[in-house]
Amino acid sequence: MNLSIQKVMKEFETRQGKLLALQETSLEIESGEFLCFVGPSGCGKTTLLNLVAGLETPSRGEIRSNGQKITGPGSDRVVIFQEAALFPWLNVIQNVEFGLVGRMGAGRRRDIARTFLNLVHLGRFETSYVHELSGGMKSRVALARALALNPSILLMDEPFAALDAQTRDLLHEELQEIWQRTRQTILFVTHNVREAVRLGNRVLVFTARPGSIKKEFRIELPRPRDINSAGVLSYAQQIQRELREEIEKVLKEEVDREWTLKKADFLRPAGIDLGSGI
Amino acid sequence: MGVSVQRILVGYLISLVFGIGLGLLVGRFKFLDETVGSLMVGLQVLPSICWLPLAILWFGLSEAAIQFVVIMGALLSIAIATDSGVKNIAPLYLRAARTMGISGIDLYTRVVLPAALPSVASGMKLGWSFAWRSLMAGELLFVSVGLGHLLQTGRELNDMAQVVAVMIVIVCVGLFFDQLVFARLERHLRRLWGTA
Hints:
The complex is a heterodimer. Chain A is an alpha/beta fold. Chain A has 2 domains: 3-76 and 151-264, P-loop containing nucleotide triphosphate hydrolases (Rossmann fold, 3-Layer(aba) Sandwich); 83-150, no CATH class. Chain A contains 7 helices and 10 strands. Chain A has helices spanning 45-53, 92-96, 106-119, 135-148, 165-182, 193-199, 230-254; strands spanning 3-14, 17-29, 34-38, 60-65, 68-69, 77-80, 153-157, 185-190, 202-206, 213-218. Chain A has a 6-stranded mixed β-sheet with strand order 6-7-8-3-9-10, with helices on both faces. A 4-stranded antiparallel β-sheet of chain A has the order 2-1-4-5, with helices on one face. In chain A, helix 6 (193-199) packs across helix 7. By secondary structure, chain B is mainly α. Chain B has one domain (2-193): MetI-like (MetI-like fold, Orthogonal Bundle). Chain B has helices at 2-28, 30-45, 51-59, 63-87, 91-99, 104-142, 147-156, 160-193. In chain B, helix 1 (2-28) runs antiparallel to helix 6 (104-142). The radius of gyration of chain B is 19 Å and the shape is elongated. Chain B starts with a helix and ends with a helix. The chains are: A alpha/beta, B mainly alpha. The interface between A and B is medium-sized, with 29 and 23 residues.
């Protein structure tokens, strides 16, 4: 499913007046692409994701998927949220099959749900309750739930942000593996530059608010990618440089007009000594 | 005793259906919330026994009057608890459900109601005790058959034993239903939600 974002702009009404979250943006996304959005806080990347999901409507412009205009949320564009958003009144397998209820018989539904639960390696936890799962497990169930719907587009909003580094690493591998098999279009929002480089075909860097696409990087590395490889690191550094400027802008606004990101300043404490008491 | 229990079961079930329905509507529609919502809270403060004279005027000395009092006791607390439950649902659940293609009535039955259930359950428990109290008050004051009436005749006949015996029965019936229904519901919800 290819996506065409045409001159989309989004404004919000707040108590302080109109807030321009996303400047006029246009973007073409090919079917089967893995696209990552990185940017400072408040840069509109989540807003753009919500617009594609249909959870918000653009103030101007339109988004078309396969030529059809997007007017609201739908199961062809499933979102995976940062907080997993699993339903606590259902157990794990019921959560995974949630989107499928009403579309097919109970037996087939259960089979499909089991397949995807096994895909994320949680087959043993079918009847567990949501509160009994760890953060990483919740993310995997959320992933299984979304995949079970076989959406054309998977929208992931910082899905691994709340996890520890090891679990995140594991999930990156699982996600890569799954994507190489299913080849869905994925839009992945993250703050973590190396994660973006490891996973994406293209990485789009957003400017600070009001956000727009600053620069696009095509990641031409073979898969599967190792997060510590030289290739990933080199791309990550380039992207980080672009991002730094934007982060500085955000910090200036939030902290202090005079603030700048000094190079490695934080590594040198005031009472530095060379070890001999000099 | 059978008569009393029957009365309360009928009255309570009606309160449950309409109370939850009302609570859902008030929770959903801002217009209703601003008009009916505040009215609900106000009326709830009124002791249910105060509905009795009105009930008798409207329905005469009949079963309907008693039922009316029981319903007025329970319905509003259930509605208020449901309304509060609906309003306090994490918006995240609704957004997640919508991106999975759920909308309309489906959204209500499969997401809103289950998500609000812990709140509704505590409202149900409260409503039950109000209903039971209203029933006893009503029966005490004017009706011919039932536990409340037995209490009254005991008093008239100066029969202390009867009075105390009936009181014990009333407590036991209340506890029985609590254990049978509400404690089970609460335990079940606690297991699912982790705390509730």
